[in-house]
Amino acid sequence: MANVNIFANFDTTAVTDPERNYYSLPKNGLPVLNQITASTSITIDPGAPTTANRKLAFSTTGIDGIGYDDFTFDFDKFYFQNQIIYFTVRVKTDNDFPAKYVKNLSLSDYQSTMPDNTINIQLIDKNNTTLNASFSSDFGKLSADEIGGYFKGSFQYDNIGDNLKLFANATTNGIVMTAFSSTFDMISASGNKDFRKINEDNNQKDNFLSYLYQPNLKDNQTFFTQFLGQIVGDGSDPSTLGVKIYEKISNFLLNSNDVDYANVDNLISNLKLIDSNVNKFSEQYPASLKRIVDFFSINRSNLKPIFNKFNQNYNDKGRPSTGQGKNLGPELTISDTLSGGDNFKPIVALEKFSGQYLFLNIDPTSAFDFRYLGPNRTFQLSSYNTEWGWGLVLPGDIGNYTYMANESDNKLLLENGFRILNEKDGISPINNITEYYKFYEYIPATDDSDIFSFYDYKNSNSNIDTTTLSGINNCIDEIILKDVYSGTNLI
């Protein structure tokens, strides 16, 4: 035990003196100038604390918080197969302060009784099964050669897996501590996610082979497959010469003039044409990384393919097997009972004279003064009235009638109970409507043909998730890291 007095003064070099500025005097160079010193006395125990309330903390940088838990530098969401993954394990007190008085930890095999200042680390899966990973220490030359209370190392795992984590078992001054890291995935070194832009599917080697008609060339393709074909590529790699040239030509307008899809450099150039203020950073990306930046710099919504949502395809044109007429169902008769209200379904009317189809999506049971059949809100086409709002073109005496009431205000019906009696106008029988129209059930479906897709989702090499924003962002992380790690030979 030892008592130590600590004295403290304000550092006057960090304070601006107004009088010195007024008289243009040189800045004060003395750290202490005519100050009252504050002091305190503390007792320092040179020995290490004996409390058992210690714990281990994992991080990838050694920054895990002082006095609190900082999870900023937890393990990433994923790593690549056989990648060297660096990490740090630190001994902390129960109130989350680094135990710097503890000796650094050395890597050791697991034992029932661990020697002091040693640590054993294992890679386990979601079922807590130990996996075969190789661990090594990586302290390097640091100022704290012996004291610091941490372990700095790395590991490699030559396989793939989901929800993996590290388990550490350490002993310091006879105190046993255990901890788990955050979970992460190990994915294939070739990556799970990739993308192709529209027109990045050119197989120039096959194009050359398709040009061969002379027998001496067609029967001897070595020059085109082993030499020229290797130069231009076969379309599997977007960085090959054949793909890059074809894409630049095919997508020239998109890449240069379309503000929604233009490359970053071309977008900046277009903005300067209208004197728009642009903050341009002078990074020079490698070609493969620039392709990724150009692609994912567009609005996320534009990565989703644009499909044809047309849902009124009624005419099969004699070729129903092609998908024509997919919205036209079976024919209805005027005596068929149809549902209204919450169970209402649209129907289709075919005008015989013009051959035009009408989409009837107005529920007639909601029409003014409609007499529907029973409490279930059903109706029949034989009860058609112009008040339904369907807009059918018919003679004036069809569906254009008024209700008649007796003295008790009861509506008068025909014997069939479907059509309202109206002898005043002498209207035509309602079944005459079939002379002008046919009615069909409506089948809800959309065309879903491809209108435009900047992201070539049909390409076998494209597999990013464009359904959600988080799905796109996760794919971006993986694709960028794969490109950076591959370019720096980390994987």
Structure characteristics:
491 residues; alpha+beta; 21 strands; 16% helix; elongated
Textual characterization of the structure:
The chain has helices at residues 18-22, 204-210, 215-218, 222-232, 241-250, 252-256, 264-273, 287-296, 469-487, and strands at 2-8, 38-44, 54-59, 78-80, 85-93, 106-107, 118-124, 130-131, 134-137, 150-156, 161-172, 175-180, 184-187, 306-307, 328-332, 337-339, 347-351, 356-360, 378-380, 437-442, 450-452. A hairpin with a 2-residue loop joins strand 11 (161-172) and strand 12. By secondary structure, it is α+β, with helices and mostly antiparallel strands. Helix 8 (287-296) runs antiparallel to helix 9 (469-487). Mean pLDDT is 81; it is low at 403-428. The chain is built from nine helices and 21 strands. The two termini are 53 Å apart.
How would the blueprint of this fold be written?
Blueprint: E1 2-8, H1 18-22, E2 38-44, E3 54-59, E4 78-80, E5 85-93, E6 106-107, E7 118-124, E8 130-131, E9 134-137, E10 150-156, E11 161-172, E12 175-180, E13 184-187, H2 204-210, H3 215-218, H4 222-232, H5 241-250, H6 252-256, H7 264-273, H8 287-296, E14 306-307, E15 328-332, E16 337-339, E17 347-351, E18 356-360, E19 378-380, E20 437-442, E21 450-452, H9 469-487
Helix pairs in contact: 2-4, 8-9
Instruction: Describe the main β-sheet briefly.
Output: 7 strands, mixed
N-to-C terminal Cα separation, in Å? Answer: 53 Å
> How many E-type strands?
21
Mean pLDDT: 81
Quick description:
The chain is an alpha+beta fold. The chain is built from nine helices and 21 strands. Strand 11 and strand 12 form a beta hairpin.
